[in-house]
Amino acid sequence: MSIKVLFAASDTDWQAYRTSLRTALDDAGLDATLARDLPPDEVDYIVYAPSGGLRDFTPYTRCKAVMSLWAGVETIVCNETLTMPLTRMVDPGLTEGMVEWVTGHVLRLHLNIDHALARQDGRWDRHVPPLARDRPVTILGLGKLGHACAKALSALNFPVSGWSRSAKDIPDVRTYAGPEGLRAALSSAEILVLLLPDTPETVDILDADALATLPKGAMIINPGRGPLIDDEALLDALDRGHISQATLDVFRIEPLPVEHPFWAHPKVTVTPHIASETRPVSAARVIAENMRNCEMGLPLEHLVDRGNGY
Ligand code: NAP
């Protein structure tokens, strides 16, 4: 099979992916031309990230699929020129990284490690943390990432609840679905993890009302997307002490502007969108195998549902 693959992402991405993609395409048995510049009407597949600047897909008349390097596709899903199938990134390396980041921060908040680090002042001030079994965690979003995090936290004995659009059956995880399940999912969450995509339905899902539903003193970890949280409502809930800590990796505007109150807030930890990243070696394999499947007439995996927006 001979195919032409356009790499439409940034220079940095090209440096990171070039070798891995070449190897993965060869390993998949594909006779592939891989380049950053190809005549549009000859392109079979586009490997895509918003950083590459490609916005008009109209000239790519024979393109069989656009394959996103990112798990979140909110910046491209509404592009009306993108009429070919769109796949999102589901990468074992990305999932592994997210599980480590989420587990690390849940443990940090659960054990109150920030407090211990801040108090190296000679005082023998014993605050024994509770056991994980007594610290309910809720995860909003039980997709590839949320599901993997739920399993990892459950294995550490945290009582884990999760919420998604469709009903799920995950061993040792209490699951809720649909708008009617949200309140119950929130009401027990001492630690809340947001792993939802950014869609019209999820914007501001953590608004003043949802924050009020969380138990007093709840802590929030957001590695999902910035627009999931109403920033003003969160700041207000932190200032009133209803929410005791927020660890935020993603923001409405990135980089987070220096004047944003999150930076200086004593109860907020800001991380610069580093919770997890697509890993070139494993991601290249996923992309190449998906192209091979498509060339063999098999269905594409990880297709984005345009109607749902993720
Ligand atoms: P995914 O597999 O598509 O899962 C999304 C989950 O959200 C699914 O469980 C889905 O429910 C649920 N959901 C979506 N809309 C909903 C709604 N209106 N009500 C209730 N549940 C809803 O996505 P993923 O791979 O786990 O990734 C999740 C998000 O993480 C990405 O979209 C991206 O924004 C973010 N992310 C962040 C980083 C970072 O470094 N910070 C890295 C990678 C990804 P169903 O299961 O019923 O469809």
Written description of the protein model:
Helices cover 32% and strands 17% of the residues. Helix 6 links the parallel strand 9 (191-194) and strand 10 (218-222). The strands form two sheets. It has a seven-stranded parallel sheet with strand order 8-7-6-9-10-11-12. Strands 2-1-3-4-5 form a five-stranded parallel sheet, with helices on one face. The longest helix has 19 residues, at 92-110. The two termini are 30 Å apart. It is built from nine helices and twelve strands. The mean pLDDT is 97. Helix 1 (11-27) packs across helix 9 (280-295) and helix 2 (92-110) packs across helix 4 (144-155). The protein has helices at 11-27, 92-110, 113-118, 144-155, 178-187, 208-213, 231-239, 261-264, 280-295; strands at 2-8, 31-35, 45-48, 65-68, 86-87, 137-140, 160-164, 173-177, 191-194, 218-222, 243-248, 268-270. The chain is elongated, with a radius of gyration of 21 Å. With 310 residues, it is α/β, with parallel strands linked by helices. It has two domains: 3-91 and 278-295, NAD(P)-binding Rossmann-like Domain (Rossmann fold); 92-270, Rossmann fold. The structure holds NADP nicotinamide-adenine-dinucleotide phosphate (NAP). Residues 71-72, 94, 141-146, 164-166, 195-199, 201-202, 223-225, 249-250, 273, 275-276, 310 line the site of NADP nicotinamide-adenine-dinucleotide phosphate (NAP).
